[in-house]
């Protein structure tokens, strides 16, 4: 059945930006963070969080947040995810789903999860989207509004569903690239130190010396020293040569 859906000029513009980003090669964390910010704007929401499901340990990790207290999010990873009455139910869906679709609001408001976790940041109306790929949840988007706004509409859920295939493809591509890089680095683990492996992995992801220094919280000169050592150990002359040797 064909359903007509009206998009505002703002939503149309942001949807185009999101689809363009998802079509480009980006690191997994960058995808969840940048796209999440744009989705939050597109849905006129105020809060955003994102996690990756770890099937081996049966828990969420790699938390990202926008407009939420980082310590509150850490408390979710430590405690509240194991006392969360809605996310296990929402995660079963292959489409965008509201919190109120799996648990009535009045029932949710009676839980510790609502009063001590959600209410701490003012989260009231929520919608989640999961990136399911070959039976694996690659990552999610959790978008929330406060009580002063309305719940998410059916049209807004359909808008999220429109971008889900591209979101899944982008995360699958990024994680595949990261996995391949890790495999190659593991093969060279006897030759490279742990720090040299960290830097080589970031070089493969396109990071500059300054970006690597900022991410690893070390000096740019230290990055260069480790990089020169890695060049020598794997027989590379420059960054392009290093990437080639680690990719083949």
Name the features.
248 residues; alpha+beta; Beta-Lactamase; Arc Repressor Mutant, subunit A; 5 strands
Q: Estimate what percentage of residues fall within beta strands.
A: 5-15%
Q: Helical percent range?
A: 55-70%
Q: Name the overall outline.
A: elongated
Weakly predicted, low-confidence segments: none
Largest sheet, strands/sense/barrel: 5 strands, antiparallel
CATH topology of the largest domain: Beta-Lactamase
Radius of gyration: 21 Å
Largest sheet: spatial strand order: 2-1-5-4-3
Domain count? 2
> What is the H level of CATH, i.e. the homologous superfamily of the largest domain?
GAF domain
Summing up helix and strand content along with how strands pair, one would put the structural category as: alpha+beta
Total helical elements: 12
CATH architecture of the largest domain: 2-Layer Sandwich
Strand-and-helix sequence, N→C? Answer: HHEEHHEHHHEEHHHHH
CATH class wording of the largest domain: Alpha Beta
């Amino acid at each position: 059945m064909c359903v007509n859906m009206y998009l505002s000029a703002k939503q149309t513009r942001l949807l185009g930006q999101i689809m363009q980003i998802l079509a480009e090669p980006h690191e997994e964390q960058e995808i969840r963070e940048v796209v999440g910010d744009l989705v939050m704007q597109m849905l006129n929401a105020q809060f955003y969080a994102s996690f990756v499901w770890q099937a081996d340990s049966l828990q969420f990790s790699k938390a990202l947040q926008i407009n939420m207290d980082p310590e509150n999010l850490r408390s979710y990873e430590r405690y509240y995810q194991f006392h969360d009455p809605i996310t296990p139910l929402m995660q079963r869906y292959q489409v965008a789903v509201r919190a109120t679709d799996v648990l009535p609001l009045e029932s949710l408001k009676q839980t510790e999860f609502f009063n001590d976790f959600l209410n701490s940041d003012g989260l009231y109306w929520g919608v989640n989207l999961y990136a399911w790929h070959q039976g694996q949840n690659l990552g999610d988007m959790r978008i929330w509004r406060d009580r002063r706004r309305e719940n998410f509409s059916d049209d807004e859920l359909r808008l999220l569903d429109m971008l889900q295939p591209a979101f899944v493809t982008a995360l699958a591509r990024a994680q595949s690239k990261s996995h391949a890089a890790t495999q190659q680095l593991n093969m060279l683990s006897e030759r490279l130190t742990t720090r040299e492996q960290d830097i080589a992995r970031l070089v493969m992801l396109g990071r500059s010396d300054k970006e690597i220094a900022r991410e690893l919280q070390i000096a740019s000169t230290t990055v260069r020293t480790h990089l020169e050592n890695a060049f020598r150990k794997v027989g590379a002359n420059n960054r392009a040569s290093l990437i080639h040797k680690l990719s083949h």
